[in-house]
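Explain this one:

_____
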Amino acid sequence: MQRKPLVELLKDLEAELLRLGYTKASMDYYRSRWKRLLHYAQSQNEIYYSEQLGVDYLEDHHQILGQDLCNGLSHKSTQELRVIRMVGDFQLHKAVLRRYCNHKNLLTDPYYIGISKSFRTYCESKDYSKITVEYYVKLSERFMDYLLSQGIKYCHEITLSAVNNYIKTLVGYTCKTVELNISMLRVFLRDLWQKDILKDDLSSKTPKIAGRKQTGIPSVWKKEELDALINAIDRGSPKGKRDYAIIVLACVLGLRVTDIKNLTFDCFHWETNQLVFRQSKTKVIITLPIPPAVGWAVIDYLKYGRPKVDTSLIFVRHLAPFLPFSQTDRLYHIIRGYMRAAKLSTLKMHRGMSSPEIVD
């Protein structure tokens, strides 16, 4: 790969940020940081950007040492680090990776907006769950944004090389995230091929990820950790009553997050003491007995905690407007808050709301 001098690299990066619609304030911020980086490179007699140059700049200019990069950084230091990483990523991939910004409307190009809408319809026709559809559409928009950054204005111009280069931008993400992106790519490319937009079935040639989620060791909760977590919940407050009921449903009955969010009043058959619902992942009707701990937790929330809102869904947000949780909300913020209150470690292990496994 032929490298460009840093001054030219920064000009290209500036043009890309302008194309992406970055605000004047953001551009002024980045330009000031790039100017400092360029002056530093010149003081070191460096013409080209390198990862080592970026690390040395952070250490000399902002006192951010190499070992600090793996630990918690202040907000200011994190911003400085993002600037340097953006330069490195742009040099490597010729694109601004969207891990650094979170635009609500990622796509602005009319052609690709139309492709996105068509892809959503395709996913819905495949009877994917709502959350899968949302994930696939969101990830496909990131891919299409990448295509635009590479000068690919129409889907019929997509090549296998472009697909492979996009996959390279996922380096550093978890195995599960990479797997989800590749799964999306296969579906997206297959849709384009079936619609004769692509003349070659690139979906069959998209690389497969070697690791599978089954190969990992699942994170588990010890009984004393769950006790500490539950004891940290203020069950006297409306929000605490809701969170307690949600966590008990996950721990005692092993319900998935999406299934908990989709529970309605009709799911609870109090006369037979049964919980009946259609599982979001398998579409199978599930019937479970309602243990006393679960039943009383839900009743307590419904009688003394739940806001009076016009929805059949049991669980809603407790900040106005009192709406149901979004399809993509994994409720991780609920667990994380109580883990901190209970002084439980939030590092290393995955401790979320996805059917927690308990060990004695």
In short: The CA atoms of residues 43 and 238 lie 60 Å apart.
